[in-house]
Amino acid sequence: MGRSYNWNNILVLPDDLRAFAWSAPMRDLAAKLDLSDVGLRKLLTSYGVAPPPQGYWNKVHAGKPVPTRPKAPPRRPGETGRLSVDARFAKVLSSAPAPSSEGPFASALVPENLDELYAQELNAIGRASAPKTLDAPHRGLAQLLKQEQRRREKAAGREHHWDQARFDTPLAKRRLRILNGIFLALSKRGHGGDAYESDGEIHARAIVGDTYLGLEITIAGKHRTVRQYGYVRPAPDLPAATPLTLRLDPGFDRRGGKTWQDDEGGNLEAKIAPIAAAIIVAGEAKFRQSLREEEERAERARQEEEKRRQERLVELNRRRLENLRTSGELLRQAQEIRTLVQRVRQAIIEGSVAIDASVLEAWENWALAEADRIDPVRSGQFTSHLNEPTL
Fold this sequence. Notes:
Blueprint: E1 10-12, H1 14-21, H2 26-32, H3 37-46, H4 56-61, E2 83-85, H5 114-125, H6 139-155, H7 170-187, E3 192-198, E4 201-208, E5 211-219, E6 225-228, E7 231-234, E8 244-249, E9 259-261, H8 272-349, H9 357-374, H10 376-379
Antiparallel strand pairs: 1-2, 3-4, 4-5, 5-8, 6-7, 8-9
Helix pairs in contact: 2-3, 5-8, 7-8, 8-9
């Protein structure tokens, strides 16, 4: 649901977008978004939202019966239940809040209990196997296989070529067939996967709704190796029957995750259906876990912001107290100057000091003006600590 992830996109509820698409003629809606009606129609289609059929609004105005607005499909496993849409839709739609990590998570397609989800998906997948050839691969493998074919064609007729096909050994082909079987089984339930080559290794992932999970197929136990292109790789002559292990890596960090392997209970090819069902459940579980993790991140961010806020308040109060003390010091200095002026005037009156009247007046004016200048009340400096600090 909504896998268009531009950095400035907004998340909206699918039903809100459908309600908008059916609220007025396309030309009128497009004008609100500064789009053409053709451009808006293409955008809506890319989000899986079908606008009203041709002639719908003519029938509405004529009072004729019209089809009802279709509701958004129910949330599937691994889906966020949100659509990521162009930021211009913020003019007409409200951003959808994230689902709560407490649920409920159930929909017509997702039971609340994950064990029930596994049983449901296993039953729906039914019989599944890895095709014996890669002649009709899942689209998630198409690019990797095309790259392999180009390498074969370039190397054809040459005894040595630096860019040989990477996965032409029996065991490598088997790994690709297993991935193909898993992807095809997932596609039965509207999910999928893809794979690519890097440094001679297969990197694969399953895509369940809007959730991605790593997949890794490795050789079980010890095996012979060779050095190729500077890397240690399994020996190319290892038989296809070499025991393999498939590991589900939900976090792409090689931590935890369910594993399957060739054993007495059968090889991996015989376990495609339960593997695919478990992957779907893991996708839903990861989605639910991601909600908890996002809430925890938000709470940590809130706590960190509150910590910074409190530190800022402490600093503001420290400055307030410092300014208060400065006011007291300035007032003391101003009062001392005024007292000095009075004492000098008194001394002249008593005749103990002889000063020219004009000189005395000029000095008094200057001294009192200086006292007024530094007086925290007259200068307004006291306002720096008058109000309690707030953010």
